[in-house]
Design a protein that fits this description.
heterodimer; A: ABC transporter involved in vitamin B12 uptake, BtuC; B: 243 residues; alpha/beta; Rossmann fold; six-stranded mixed beta sheet
């Protein structure tokens, strides 16, 4: 019995070492050096040998002590069970914290800026959650709608001098329109095909923005996008003649923090609006149909649900919130270029939804905070940052393959006696 | 009864799965107020016929007429509004949703004003569902899931109920209970039922009339009790002692 176990462990370790070798030779084995004679290649096969050795003996030891991979998972601590109602309490506390955060004495400019970034991703996660989490449509090109929103605001504000508040709904509607234009022909497709088409659509939008220089500025992007004002009162040290600025209005000392705090509350309100809207929709027949469609399309059709219309509504609404977030992004940055809307953004937003637990609103918040904050906190580890981040992701997926918050609260309950 | 116009009339319907001919010209009638059972061996085309009535797969020839109007090419999602509800093969409940949410989905196409009354009606027929209304449907037993599938179909106030293998995978006691409820739905609610079943004994005892499907065509038809007494039927479908 011990013999087979050792043999199995040896086999497992050998395989792991082989993979390590294949990866390490190009990644670690060769190094570009800059010498007097120009560029040269230095080999570091001793490093490769060390790495492969560590992997081999590490894997061998692990396999011997723990037996199999299943056992390894069994040793991870289980998710604690929370009593019912905890979610509500935690959500309430988090909301209070979110409202109070910028006013706390510890909140400096850096913290508030990071918090704004987290909230943008929370909002994008909530928007995509409608499409992926609730309706079960795998959308790999969500960033396209983010881009449409951002460029809509930037172009309208610069060319037509329209205010942020007027542009915001237009940006949302425009993104929703793009959602419908894309959705109409492709929503008949199933899972993986839909994923490929949305992936292509996301890249198309980016490439059009990159190449249509007269329209979008091409790779140079659009700069000096107007910043939002406080309902007509600008955040500036000196207003134009006859104009009252924000700090004059409230009799405050001018501080550049005012605008940042305003942006923070703006995105907080936008994100909460997304959440509130989604929670309302879940209680309506259309919203419930989204979830039912994810579970079983044929059963839905037998119950009189037209799948194309229901999917289209999810797609358009998800796109709309992406558009809102895009408009906010443009006004916050003051500068946008196609670089901000690459596939990796779609991937991060999708990761937030999946990591959060597909359809869970609270899960999106936790996952967005994790995915944005952890790389920030790991800045001190400079070049190991992404390795640690990757390890954390792998651990979470081992620990909670169904996502951080997998529990689904029913959208309807009968009152007692009803 | 035969003088009345049939509620559902399948007229010489053919259907193919690729090159395979699954239905070779099937005709059957279901009259208002009837329970009609369609029995046959595995692979005879029973479920295919039910699905063809619903338009998927499309009939390659023949017509399906419901209440005097042709529905051969009507999309599945418009059937409910005509008064046709179905409990599809394999139940197809929504496993992650609660029992109550499943029933709400059943009422999707209906008038919201009727919801409360219809819910009470379904809970009266299946008291078990009332007890379990907040439970996740996927965690219930097979029998309870079958009750939910039928209850969900009833939420749309159908005139015609299509049931595909309601006894599949259920313990004998539960089968008897489900069939008793189907009878109740037919008698006190006046819902016409077309039932596809492998459990020929129970199905023919319940049904007013029955059809026997063999290799994609109707081999025999008649009153349920006559078919039950027929030696050929007994030999082919009842020998296993399904009761």
């Amino acid at each position: 019995m011990d013999g087979t176990k050792a043999a199995n462990a040896l086999k497992e370790a050998g395989l792991a070492a082989l993979v390590a070798l294949l990866l390490a030779v190009p990644l670690i084995g060769f190094r570009l050096t800059e010498g007097l004679q120009g560029l040269g290649i230095e080999t570091r096969f001793d490093w490769v040998a060390w790495g492969v050795g560590v992997v081999f003996f590490g894997r061998f030891g692990l396999a011997l002590t723990r037996g199999s991979r299943g056992d390894l998972l069994g040793h991870l601590p289980a998710m604690p069970k929370f009593p019912t109602g905890t979610g509500r309490t935690v959500a309430g506390l988090l909301l209070l914290l979110a409202i109070a955060m910028p006013l706390l004495p510890v909140a400096d400019r850096y913290m508030v800026e990071i918090a704004i970034t987290v909230l943008i991703y929370v909002m994008l996660g909530w928007g995509l959650n409608i499409v992926v989490g609730l309706a079960g449509l795998l959308d790999l090109g969500y960033v396209a709608f983010y881009a449409v929103g951002a460029y809509t605001y930037a172009l309208l504000a610069i060319n037509f001098d329209m205010s942020f508040w007027l542009c915001l709904p237009i940006a949302g509607l425009f993104a929703a329109l793009f959602g419908i234009i894309l959705g109409f022909p492709v929503l008949r497709l199933r899972g993986d095909y839909l994923a490929i088409v949305t992936l292509g659509f996301g890249e198309m939008i980016r490439i059009v923005l990159l190449n249509w220089k007269e329209f979008s500025g091409g790779p140079n992007g659009i700069s000096s996008i107007p910043r939002p004002d406080f309902f007509g009162f600008p955040f500036a040290r000196e207003g134009e003649p006859g104009q009252t600025t924000f700090h004059q209005l409230f009799g405050l000392e001018f501080s550049p923090m005012h605008r940042i705090i305003f942006l923070y509350y703006l995105i907080l309100v936008l994100a909460l609006l997304t959440n509130w809207f989604t929670l309302r929709m879940r209680r309506l027949p259309v919203g419930r149909a989204w979830e039912a469609l994810r579970e079983d399309e044929i059963a839905c059709r037998a119950l009189g649900i037209n799948p194309t219309n229901v999917k289209l509504s999810a797609f358009a609404l998800g796109a709309m919130f992406g558009g809102f977030a895009g408009a906010f992004f443009a006004t916050r940055q003051g500068f946008i270029s196609p670089e901000s809307f690459s596939f990796i953004e779609s991937a991060v937003i999708l990761a937030i939804v999946v990591l959060g637990g597909m359809g869970s609103q609270m899960g999106v918040v936790i996952a967005a905070a994790f995915l944005i904050l952890v790389p920030e906190l790991l800045r001190d580890f400079s070049q190991y940052r992404m390795v640690l981040f990757g390890m954390a992701m792998v651990l979470i997926m081992l620990w909670r393959p169904q996502g951080l918050v997998a529990h689904r609260a029913p959208s309807a309950r009968l009152e007692a006696g009803a | 009864m035969t003088a009345a116009r049939p509620l559902l009339s399948v007229q010489d319907v053919k259907a193919n799965y690729g090159p395979v001919e699954a239905l070779r010209g099937v005709s059957l009638d279901v009259f208002p107020g009837e329970i009609v059972a369609l029995i046959g061996a595995n692979g005879a085309g029973k479920s295919t016929l039910l699905m063809t009535i619903c338009g998927d797969p499309r009939a390659s020839a023949g017509r399906v007429v419901y209440d005097g109007a042709e529905i051969t090419n009507t999309p599945l999602h418009e059937m409910v509004r005509l008064g046709i509800a179905q409990s599809p093969e394999g139940r197809r409940i929504f496993p992650r949703m609660s029992v109550l949410e499943n029933l709400q989905m059943g009422a999707f196409a209906g008038d919201p004003a009727n919801f409360g009354g219809d819910l009470d009606r379904v809970f009266r027929l299946f008291p078990r569902l009332a007890e379990r209304r907040d439970q996740r449907a996927g965690t219930m037993s097979g029998g309870e899931q079958q009750m939910l599938a039928i209850g969900r179909a009833l939420m749309s106030r159908p005139r015609l109920l299509l049931l595909d293998e309601p006894s599949l995978g259920l313990a004998p006691l539960l089968v008897a209970q489900i069939f008793a409820t189907i009878k109740e739905i037919n008698r006190s609610e006046g819902v016409t039922v077309l039932l596809v079943e492998q459990n020929a004994y129970h199905a023919l005892r319940l049904a007013h009339r029955g059809y026997v499907l063999v290799n994609g065509s109707i081999r025999m038809s008649g009153a349920g009790s006559d078919l039950l007494a027929n030696p050929d039927v007994q030999k082919a479908y009842l020998a296993g002692g399904h009761h």
